[in-house]
HUS1 protein
Amino acid sequence: QGNFFDEFQMEGVAAEHNEIYLELVPENLSRALKTAQSAKAVKIKLTNKHCPCLRVAVELPTLSSSSRIVTHDIPVGVIPRRLWNDFREPSVPDFDVSIYLPVLKTMKSVVERMKNLSNSLVIEANLSGEMNLKIETDLVSVTTHFKDLGNPPWASEDECESSAQGRDLESMAEARIDIKKLQQLLAGQQVNPTKALCNIVNKRIVHFILLHEDVSLQYFIPALA
C-alpha cells in the first residue's frame, strides 16, 4: 500500500489475519477510476450500507473554494475465510528454463497469425536466450524464432534450486499450450511492463511474470496433454 496511498487504514477479519478478500467486476472499478485522472485526491473505502461496496470518492479540481466530489459505489462480494485457500498464489514446480520475453506487441502479432492455423502452440526456450513459438498441423508447420533474449540471473546461479541448475545451455524445454489462452494474456496488456519473464516446466506448465513499476502480474498456463 505504500506505493499507492498517502494514508492507509486497515482492519482485517482478525489480528493474525489482517486481510479482506473481495470479488468485483474489473470494468466497474476501471470506469470509476477514469473520473479520477485529474483528481486532487481519491479515497477508497469499504462500506456496507445496503450491500458490501467499494466507495470511490473523487475530489475534482474547482475554481471556487467549494469542493466538488464525485462518489462511485461499486458492489463487491466478500470472500468468506473458509474459501481463502482457493485464492492463494499457486506454488510453481522447479522450472527447467527461465527466459526474458521478446517485445509483447511483436509476440502478440505472431500469436494472432498462428491462431488462425491451430488451436495449440508449442513454446520452447533454452538457457542461451533462444525461444521458439511453433505450430504443427497435418497441413502446415510454422516456427517463429527469437534469439538474444537473455536469461534472468537466477536461471544459472549455483545456489538456484531449480532444475535449470546444471542444464545444457542449448537444450530446449517446451510445453504445448492453448493458443487462445496465450492470446488473451497478450491482448490484455495495456501497459508495457518494464520486464517480462517466462518460466517453463517441461511439458507441464508455462509461468509468465510481467513486472511493472509498482506491481507484478503472474499468469499460469498449464500444458496440454
